Amino acid sequence: MVPPGGTAHIAGGPDRPDSGSMRVLKRGMRRRRGARPRAVHIPGAVTLAGCLPGLAAVMALALCANAVDRSATAARDARTLATRVPAPHSAPRPPVVPRSFWAEGSATTGKQPPPRYDDSVVAVFVHHTDTPNSYRCADVPQIIRDLYAGQTGARDFDDIGYNFLVDRCGTVYEGRAGGVDRPVTGAHTVGFNHRTAGIAAIGTFTAGAEVPRVMTDAIAALAAWKLGLSGTDPHTEVRLVSSSSLSRFAAGTPATLPALAGHGDGYMTSCPGAALTARLPEIRDLAARLQGRP
Q: Residue by residue, what is the 3-state secondary structure of 25-88?
């Protein structure tokens, strides 16, 4: 027997057993030669086919334990790798100017309650802000502050309703508080604020208005990234449930809408304007390509 944690001791010296011990060992081996091997179960490891005597058993246990360690290490490495590999059809996050850039120094903090969150974002709604188009991009922080004041003042919102805003120079701004990476519940599309994000193009884009290419490219990049977090194809349609009868669908009614939709798809409005609405197909196409889709 090998004592637990000890080493085997064989009579007759360190190199060769004596003849008496050898005869005993041979008789024991002959008796076992016709016996059926017994399985030895080692928790978390493979099953050994048979019980090995003496030093061979110790070596088998050591090899088995080593295999278990390697298997456990491989499993941990696989889990770590899985957390690092992006989901299929994800898209890189575009640069986003943080909320603090436009909110700092204004009365935009301390009023709204804590942000609310959904489980994911499976659709985005595109809007326009219905404000003048002839602005300097350097003036955008003040424009967003004015939008915030209007929505939280006369309209009694708890915060600016849009999750993101995009200016005519293609710059993306964080709008509603709560974190750009998280599925923040917005206040942008009556009946369909849950599991969606609102992206507002700063300006008025009714029929005949010029829609800058850098603006639509930025909207596409933002939508590709945000939808990619849930694995949603910008070309697909999604099933949402209306939360308000003031929308195009009675409260509680399931609605099938584009994953990359215009405001007017969910609410009775001409927003985001005929000119920008006409650009939505190409925005979807670019968003899908940015996700690596055909």
A: HHHHHHHHHCCCCCEECCCCCCCEECCCCHHHHHHHHHHHHHHHHHHHHHHHHHHHHHHHCCCC
pLDDT per residue over 145-202, tens digit each?
999 999 998 888 999 999 999 999 999 999 999 999 999 999 999 999 999 999 999 9
3-class DSSP state for residue 127? strand
How many other β-carbons are positioned within 10 Å of the β-carbon of residue 5?
5
Integer angstrom CA distances of residue 186 from 79, 121, 175, 269, 283: 34, 11, 10, 18, 22
Class of domain 99-290 as given by CATH:
alpha beta
Cα(105)–Cα(148) distance, rounded to whole angstroms? 13
**Per-domain residue ranges of the chain:** 37-84, 99-290
Beta bridge partners of 48: 40
